[in-house]
Amino acid sequence: MLSRGNIILNKNIQASWIIKSYSTVIDLKTILKEQIPIRKNEIQKIKKNYGNKKIDEITINSLLGGMRGNRSMFWRSTSLDPNLGIKFHGLTIEDCQKNLPKLPNTYGQDEKIFLPETMLWLLITGEVPTVEQAMILKVELAKRGRKLPDYVDKVMSTLPKDLHPMTQFAIGIATLNKDSQFRENYEKGSIGKADYWESTYEDTLNLIALLPQLAGKVYSNSYNNGQPLGQFNENEDWSYNICSLLGMTNTSDSMNIQNFDDKKSQDFVNLMRLYTGIHVDHEGGNVSAHATHLVGSALSDAYLSYSSGIMGLAGPLHGLAAQEVVRFLIAMNSNISSPNDKKSIKDYLWSLLNSHKVIPGYGHAVLRQTDPRWTAMVDFAKRHPEEFENDKNVMLMQNLVNIAPGVLKEHGKTANPYPNVDAASGILFYHYGVRELLFFTVIFGCSRALGPLSQLVWDRGLGLPIERPKSLDLKSLKEYCD
Ligand SMILES: CC(=O)SCCNC(=O)CCNC(=O)[C@H](O)C(C)(C)COP(=O)(O)OP(=O)(O)OC[C@H]1O[C@@H](n2cnc3c(N)ncnc32)[C@H](O)[C@@H]1OP(=O)(O)O
Ligand SMILES: O=C([O-])CC(=O)C(=O)O
């Protein structure tokens, strides 16, 4: 083991952005105050000395093919290796599971699963937090998240019950911009460019903190006539509060709508921590992160920027695939004799492909191997055999990984025939009783806020400019071809 002050890292880990130990600093904002000028200076030096250095070539294929593979944006905290998957400041999911600290007095915490709060610290600082640092952030988020403003509650209550949960969620997030400190300061003209990051930081923490309340509000709006199913508990962690506000713990904070016993209640909260801990970020080019970054580059505040990210996440080729996978597994199970019936599964997949539909949960724009987030979700199911061994949908999800890649390879189009995270996640929530498929992506949206919004704080800190690529019309394109 290597020790950096109080920060203990497994010896194989090389976290790329760690520059010094902040073991004595316990406040996130103070660390940012120290880090931002150092990084800004580095970026300015790179621009000055290497500004004209070539990184990539833009081909007509990339121009017409969704910029696939173009290295053309800066993203600080995470990067995606096509074969190994996502790394958070150089740490894999497994590294994070080993090294992010577990916190005392945490409801039923599974030793293998970290809290999203510890991941947020890592994303923002590039440092593995100490227990003390993570505890302080956990408490701060809980304080900031204790109450949804009345005007948001009111707006949400007027929305039609059958409005898609993701649309409700995006509206709720955008509405919160009434309280944006950045927007207010900018309008008053009381801040200059060097100060933008501070109020963006405040907005970011307030927004992340309020997401459990907002998700609970959407759920009760859509599925419980607007009546709350649980209450926020300031002494508990962020993921616990998502679960209790959905009415899905057996504690005094919640209606316990699924009649969980202690074990099931704790398992469900741990599943939520796992899910919301690993969905936070997937480098910068995915639709939700990129949309947040693009809108933020116009100096829209954190609320408007992230509501745009949520709208992108609501597309079926991106986050909404989580809902589509569950629909697909249930439909397949009702068309085949058993989840072990390989031939019927293969036929079913072919019928889908022959009708020009995608196999949801399979394929990826960047990954070329099985998504390690998928592996982490399946590992959760394997560690709870008593819970899942008789679940036909979970069985089918697990069997599919041995069949779908072969079918997709034979079909011959898909660059990556292996499962992505959405292939496993929704069906585990479904198992515990979240049967409202349209709601799954809202949980994804709670988690995804952590990555793109910590990037937004840094975008402001580093003074990154408005994003504005040049487009080409058909005439110019033809001229290039000639
Ligand atoms: C959290 C996430 O966002 S993870 C992704 C979630 N989305 C899904 O699971 C939906 C299913 N998968 C897909 O649609 C795609 O694999 C995407 C959108 C994820 C990636 O898209 P691309 O980078 O364009 O993939 P790729 O280069 O492999 O596409 C080549 C062809 O294979 C097809 N293809 C890709 N994946 C699949 C699939 N799972 N089933 C059937 N066909 C597929 C594409 O539609 C494309 O067909 P076309 O040439 O007729 O247009
Ligand atoms: O990286 C992507 O394009 C899609 C994805 O898996 C994510 O955003 O989590």
TrEMBL record:
Q: What Gene3D superfamilies does UniProt report for this protein, alphabetically?
A: Citrate Synthase, domain 1 (1.10.580.10), Cytochrome P450-Terp, domain 2 (1.10.230.10)
What UniProt keywords apply to this chain's record, in alphabetical order?
Answer: Mitochondrion, Transferase, Transit peptide
Q: Does the keyword S-adenosyl-L-methionine apply?
A: no
Picking any one GO molecular function of the record gives: 2-methylcitrate synthase activity
- What's the chief localization of this chain? mitochondrion
GO biological process, any: carbohydrate metabolic process
InterPro entries linked: Citrate_synth-like_lrg_a-sub, Citrate_synth-like_sm_a-sub, Citrate_synthase, Citrate_synthase_AS, Citrate_synthase_sf
**What GO CC annotations are associated with the protein?**
mitochondrial matrix
Location(s), subcellular? Mitochondrion
Q: Nucleotide-binding: is it a keyword of this entry?
A: no
Q: Which domain of life is it from?
A: Eukaryota
Pfam families, per the entry: Citrate_synt
The record's similarity note reads: Belongs to the citrate synthase family.
State the PANTHER family in the record.
CITRATE SYNTHASE, CITRATE SYNTHASE 3, MITOCHONDRIAL
State the name under which the record lists this protein: Citrate synthase
Give the originating organism: Henningerozyma blattae (strain ATCC 34711 / CBS 6284 / DSM 70876 / NBRC 10599 / NRRL Y-10934 / UCD 77-7) (Yeast)
